[in-house]
Amino acid sequence: MPDLGPAERALLEQGAAELFEEVLTEGGLADDDPRVVAGGPRRDAFELLRRLGLLVPAPEEASGGGDGPGRTTYVGVDPAAVQSHVVAPLGQRGAELLAESAQWAQAFGALAQTWRRTPQPTSGPFTELRGEAIDPFIASVVADAQSELLTAQPQTGRDAAALRLAAERDVAALERGVRMRTLYQHSARRSAITHDYVAAVTARGAEVRTLDEFFNRLIVVDRRLAVVPGHQGLAVALVVREPSLVAYLADMFERHWERGRPFASTDSALVKEIAAEQRAMTIRMLVEGHADPASAKRMGVSPRTYAAYVADLKAEHEVTTRFQLGYALGRLGITGEEQPGEAPGEPPAGGGGQSPGECTTT
Which pLDDT band holds residue 278 (cuts at 50, 70, 90)? Predict the structure, then answer.
């Protein structure tokens, strides 16, 4: 059967189908009919029906009879008898193409693994990814992970579709035996789609914790490669392969992880501690003078939620303006740096120093 494609199928569905019906109604079609002679309006449809075997010479024509020398009458054939000769080869060719495409994908996958695992003297220890190239790269390195995935995910920039894809990708890694730990901000506990993601990965052995501090996105794969945001935000990512820097980023993750609280825990005391930590961070945002949008982003909440936190503080201190709130906090010596059990204004345990919220390397 000659090669058939979309153009031939479209012709069959339109003009050829109509001509086929006319042949059946009229009981046959002579090849010198004005409709199908060279240059005739139905010539292409007639030729296609002949190629497909849907029109064949009438039996008397095949046996040598007919209407006269050089004239042949064609009659229709049951399409069910012809279909297998057309559809089966196309299906076989489609299966062969699918198999071939899978083998090509496997071959390129092997080359990609070799490229990622081999030092790249031309590009050095850093590679910049932009736009649509970021997600496929992350999917590929996660698919290559052999032992460990460390991820720090702030709440901004992730929607339901992105989390569904991440769940499929991460579950596949976990089922291969990869150990996975993920760190969120406390605000993730109020997200239904994040709860769905966490349920999917923890069921396969992943560990998830939350932290009150702000941190940037981070992915560390097998402690050999890290992905961090570029200076232009979500549209740019930087792939880090330099061993010392990857080790440093992994160490920073571990320090944050130690301070994190288990995501799945529903212990009432822990819930109160998390609420206290979010209250303390709200105070720190006010004391440090951040604008509301910046404060909301650092806490991983919407501007409206952040405004509600500030309103709660006003009610707690029985004031109506932020100026009054700032005066009340200053008079009481409240900075948001107090540790549990410390009185306001008391020096932090360890003699002061950098605020936990200022450690934002990850």
Answer: confident
**Is residue 17 assigned to a domain?**
yes
Provide the token pair at 19: 């001509």
What is the CATH classification number for the domain harbouring 139? 3.30.870.10
Residue 23 has pLDDT above 50, yes or no: yes
Same domain, 131 and 258: yes
What's the CA gap between 1 and 86, in Å, rounded? 7
- Which helix H or strand E contains 19, and what residues bound it? helix 17-26
pLDDT for position 361: 37
pLDDT, averaged across the chain: 79
Spell out the residues 6+ positions from residue 76 whose beta carbon is closer than 8 angstroms to its own. Answer: 20, 23, 24, 54, 55
| Residues making up the chain, counted from first to last | 362
Tell me, what CATH number does 279's domain have?
A: 1.10.10
The tally of domains found in the chain comes to 3
Minimal CA–CA distance to 307: which of 271, 282, 327, 333? 282
- Position with higher pLDDT, 362 vs 277: 277
Distance of CA 133 to the CA centre of its chain: 12
Task: Please tell me whether the overall predicted TM-score, pTM, comes out greater than 0.85 for this model.
Answer: no
Burial of 80 (0-12, 13-18, 19+ CB in 10 A): exposed
Same domain assignment for residues 25 and 55: yes
Residue 305 belongs to domain spanning: 268-340
Count of other CB atoms within 10 angstroms of residue 202: 17
Residue 91 lies in a domain: no
R_g (Cα) of the chain, nearest Å: 35
